[in-house]
Structure formats: C-alpha cells, structure tokens
Design a protein that fits this description.
10 strands; about 240 residues; Rossmann fold; alpha/beta; single chain; globular
C-alpha cells in the first residue's frame, strides 16, 4: 500500500516544553491506525499539527507527497483530511439533517446535497432523528452527528480524537462498528484511551510517550509490551 500521510521529525514546543518531540509517523492508504498514550503524551497536539490547528516548531508533514506543514486548516481540509475533535462542535438549534447539509452545501448543489445527506443519515442510523434539533440529542448521538458531518465530504483521511469519550458501552460498540465500516472507504487514525476499543478496531498501534514514539506494532503485541503497560501505570520509561 502507498503512504498517504507521513510526518518526519515533527516537534511542537510551547516555551521550553516539548509537547511533541521529533515524531516520525506514517500511515498507508486504507489503513486504520490506533494512536494511544497516557495523558500528556502529545496525542492531541500531534493531531493539531497534522490538521493545521498548530504550526509545528520543527519537522515536516506530507499528504500524498505534498508538503502541508503549517498550511491553513481550510486548505488541509479541502485536500481531503477530516478531523473529529473530542468535544462535538455542533449548532444546537439545527436539526440533524441541517447539520449534515452544512457539510455538503460547500461542494454540492442543493438536490444532490439532500440526496447525499439522506444516505449518510441512513448509514449512521440517524434517519429517524433527521428532523430533531441537535441540542435535544443524547451525548452519543451528538458524537455520531459530528462524525457524519466529517465524512460527508468523503475525505481520504479521517482523524478521530477520542470518538467514544463519554459513551455508554452499547454506544461504544456501535461506534466501533461504524469505524470499521468507514475503513472500507477511508483511511483512519484514531486516538483513544479505551484499550478494549482500540483492540476492537485497529491492527497497528502507535504509542506516544512524553511527546515521542515509544513503540509501534500490531495491537496485541503493543498491549502486551511491558513498556506500554508501565507508562499507563505511571512509571518512567524512555521512548525508543
């Protein structure tokens, strides 16, 4: 498989603190990669560098062999990278259908946007809530609406930052199924703390610790690695 996204030596410093400290990372077309690590490991900061929310202090990021380092968020999004953040960013006064339509109207005529919106709502099991205001939805349903908005423009790469945060066990299982289904058409990188969830969706996992890559391997090997177990227990381990 060809490399879709590649980061080389990416660093992000805030004053004297290195939140991300020389990360080398790549993901292939069609892959579903897990990105894990304890709190403060640099996962969300690294995501923000990939999507243009932060300009890296050092290093480079290539998407389909094009250097996107420090590009504006809207330009990166137009190239085919979508991101879902930890907290849903939605307009509570809009209906579920209107929310998805917002993401489609930028590049589709009204009739085609409506057709595509309906197909997406059915795909996510949200068609029965299409005319419900987002502000009236349960937390898990709000997460699914935002995910539907992210995938609406059909991005090549989807970045999900803790997509199951605050979800019930049943909602988490459904989200895992949705992500596996999305992987048939999209490349995904998923940040999560829930080890069982990562085991359910990912084949390869990258572990960040203190802003650097600690280990990267098949999910079963990573979760059995003493270094990974130690950092989740709060013990000091030196990244490789």
């Amino acid at each position: 498989m060809s490399v879709l996204l590649s980061a080389r030596g990416v660093a992000m410093h805030f004053g004297g603190v290195a939140a991300v400290d020389g990360v080398d990372f790549s993901v292939a077309e069609g892959e579903l990669r897990g990105l894990i690590g304890p709190n403060g490991a640099g996962k969300s900061t690294f995501f923000k560098c990939l999507t243009g929310q932060l300009r890296p202090t050092a290093g480079s990021i290539l998407f389909r062999d094009r250097n996107i380092t420090g590009m504006q968020r809207f330009a990166i999004a137009r190239m085919g990278i979508g991101i879902k953040t930890q907290v849903p960013s939605l307009f509570d006064g809009l209906t579920v259908r209107e929310s998805v339509m917002i993401a489609l109207r930028r590049f589709l005529a009204e009739r085609e946007a409506r057709r595509r919106a309906q197909a997406i709502l059915e795909r996510f099991g949200l068609d029965g809530l299409a005319e419900t205001e987002v502000g009236r939805l349960a937390h898990g349903q709000r997460q699914w609406v935002e995910l539907a908005m992210v995938i609406a423009p059909e991005p090549a790469l989807i970045l999900l930052d803790e997509p199951t945060a605050g979800m019930s066990a049943e909602e988490t299982r459904r989200t895992a199924a949705l992500i596996r289904e999305l992987n048939a058409r999209h490349t995904l990188i998923v940040v999560e703390h829930d080890m069982a969830f990562i085991r359910a969706i990912a084949h390869t996992v990258t572990v960040l610790h203190q802003g650097r890559v600690l280990v990267e391997d098949e999910v079963a090997k990573v979760l059995a690695d003493p270094r990974v177990q130690n950092v989740y227990l709060g013990r000091q381990v030196q990244p490789a």
